[in-house]
């Protein structure tokens, strides 16, 4: 999640755990602890693929954070004694640190909670920025600064509301998952790996990716849809060249759970993470191979994806509200004739009137 959310969560957790000993300084310390695991972004692992895959690694591991919280609490108590017992201080520090990666595990990117075991954990029921999760925490922390005699209770209330929102997001995701299973039953895509995650800033409109053998389906489904059938768009997955060995390609395959796409763009082979983005606007794309006479692996190069346009927002908002009034094929406008007019299908993805 974003830094503001993690700071608000850390502050609220610190206030709740501190109880009657809570103070503005405790809230500030909790906010700092809540953002601490993300300092791994300053570490360079040598190439863009490694930087992506190894982010949220050791600094988000329960096997690291729990012992670190004990060491930090002991050092804190030795250097600057507090009103807390060592056990109470350790609990406060540990919970502030640990709730950070636990929250991150509810996003599409995933979190290596059990590093050095290299298995990203992800239950992607939240978008990386969601005001409906963050605002209750911020309000609780701000209110506790004003009404200091109720700090712990207000922080606990904010945590309760935000936690209920996570529960709602899981219920909504399960609802969409049931729709997908029912619609694909009896088709070649039945039982195939499926990735479901909310679209930006909400938990009503969900993006669905179903990975087949040679192609994948992509579409959007809103909790508010009257007709729950999803208009899927079928797109090729592409293939990695036989005989070409790339450790970075293997890393991406493992990290994404196989949800990647291969596109030949001129002489380069670009690998895209299908989990993060929409349509052709995929957040993580890397050139990993190059062809002259034959394909050879190259050092990873980050490829910029097309930027989302503000003009998309009203259409996506209408799709969120259940609008099913338009129909189209998926294609990014920037790749098409200038006279193309942006529309949205029930899949909710931008396309031009003219074919690409």
From TrEMBL:
Listed GO MF terms: hydrolase activity
Coiled coil region boundaries: none
Transmembrane annotation, as ranges: 58-76, 88-109, 121-147, 154-173
Record's signal peptide: none
Domain of life from the UniProt record: Bacteria
InterPro entries reported for this sequence: Transcription_regulator, YdjM-like
Keywords: Hydrolase, Membrane, Transmembrane, Transmembrane helix
Protein's name according to its UniProt entry: Metal-dependent hydrolase
Organism encoding this protein: Photobacterium pectinilyticum
Upper classification of the organism: Bacteria, Pseudomonadati, Pseudomonadota, Gammaproteobacteria, Vibrionales
